[in-house]
Design brief:
The protein is α+β, with helices and mostly antiparallel strands and 88 residues long. 45% of the residues lie in helices and 20% in strands. The protein contains four helices and five strands. The strands form two sheets. The protein has a three-stranded antiparallel β-sheet. A two-stranded antiparallel sheet has the order 2-3. β2 and β3 form a beta hairpin. It starts with 6 loop residues before the first helix and ends with a helix.
Length: 88
């Protein structure tokens, strides 16, 4: 991965790698993704929010990822829209 890539691109690539290892539909635990990227969970969540389809002000995000919580565990998954913008 190039250092010049924006954080969103690093996240998309890391998610694609993790999901490829687990199976295409498997969501990745937030702590695992955080560790793989060397980021705190809170910094990662801020960026993931911008990458999801969440509406912030008058603007909705691109929907590249989904973030879900179940039983206190946060998981992240790449969407088809996210796969479409993966850097080569």
């Amino acid at each position: 991965m190039s250092e010049a890539l924006p954080l969103a691109a690093h996240i998309l690539l890391a998610l694609a790698q993790e999901q490829g290892a687990r199976g295409d539909d498997a969501a990745v635990p937030l702590p695992r993704l955080s560790k793989a990227l060397g980021l705190s969970a809170s910094a990662l969540m801020r960026e993931l929010t911008l990458m999801s389809d969440a509406q912030i002000g008058a603007h909705r995000g691109p929907g590249w990822v989904t973030v879900s919580e179940s039983e206190g565990r946060w998981r992240v998954a790449l969407t088809p829209a996210g796969r479409a913008v993966l850097p080569e």
